[in-house]
Amino acid sequence: MDRFSVAGKHIAITGASSGFGHHFAGVLAREGARVSLGARRTEKIEARVDGLRGEGHAAFGAALDVCDRASMEAFFTTIEAEFGPVDVLINNAGIEAGAKTYTMIDEDDWDAVIDTNLKSAWLMSKLYTERVVANEQREGNIVMISSITDTRTIKGQFPYAISKGGVTRMTEVLALEAPRYGIRVNAIAPGYILTDVSRLVVEGDNAPDFVKGIPMRRFGKFEDLDGPLLLLASDASRWMNGSIVVVDGGHVCASL
Ligand SMILES: NC(=O)c1ccc[n+]([C@@H]2O[C@H](COP(=O)([O-])OP(=O)(O)OC[C@H]3O[C@@H](n4cnc5c(N)ncnc54)[C@H](OP(=O)(O)O)[C@@H]3O)[C@@H](O)[C@H]2O)c1
Question: Which range marks the domain in which residue 82 is found?
Answer without folding.
Answer: 10-247
